[in-house]
Write a structure and sequence with these properties.
By secondary structure, this protein is of the alpha+beta class. The protein contains five helices and three strands, in the order αβαααββα. It has one domain (14-120): Ribosomal protein L17 (50s Ribosomal Protein L17, Chain: A, Alpha-Beta Complex), CATH 3.90.1030.10. The longest helix is centred in the N-terminal third of the chain and has 20 residues, at 38-57. The protein is extended and about 85 Å long.
């Protein structure tokens, strides 16, 4: 019986599960919104909320605990500088889960995990290096 066992195993070993949830929370911090399965979103929510609680404290000890859990220093920096100060007035409930439709391949229930108070912004488009237009090259050659 699984009475009083609250950890969702998600069909993985403990180390694999912890790394997967850490990566999911890192993606949430970077992109402000993540689409995943409902069970993974429910498992990642406590991890994300604990990281915000660490960020609200802002102490060196809590920063080191966050780095130990997430394993990405640049993501922890974003968490402590941007996300945690925006959540300063809230006393928990920093994330929301929005249910979506089922996935076509395996009929898994999909969900969006996002921050409550932060506006969900899309990740910036990568800068493209365009080749100079033909007209510009012709005028440059003519100037020589």
């Amino acid at each position: 019986m699984r009475h009083l066992k609250k950890t969702a195993k998600l069909g993985r070993t403990s180390t694999h599960r912890n790394m997967m949830l850490a990566n999911l929370v890192c993606s949430l911090i970077l992109h402000k919104r993540v689409t995943t399965t409902l069970s993974k979103a429910k498992a990642a929510r406590p991890v994300a909320e604990k990281m915000v609680t660490y960020g609200k404290s802002g102490s060196l000890h809590h920063r080191r605990l966050a780095v130990a859990a997430l394993r990405q220093v640049d993501v922890v920096k974003i968490l402590f500088q941007d996300i945690a100060p925006a959540q300063k007035e809230r006393h928990g409930g920093y994330t929301r889960i929005i249910r979506l439709n089922q996935r076509n391949g395996d009929a898994a229930q999909l969900a969006i995990l996002e921050w409550v108070d932060l506006p969900a912004t899309a990740s910036p488009a990568p800068a493209t290096t365009e080749a100079p237009k033909a007209e510009e090259t012709k005028t440059a050659e003519a100037a020589k």
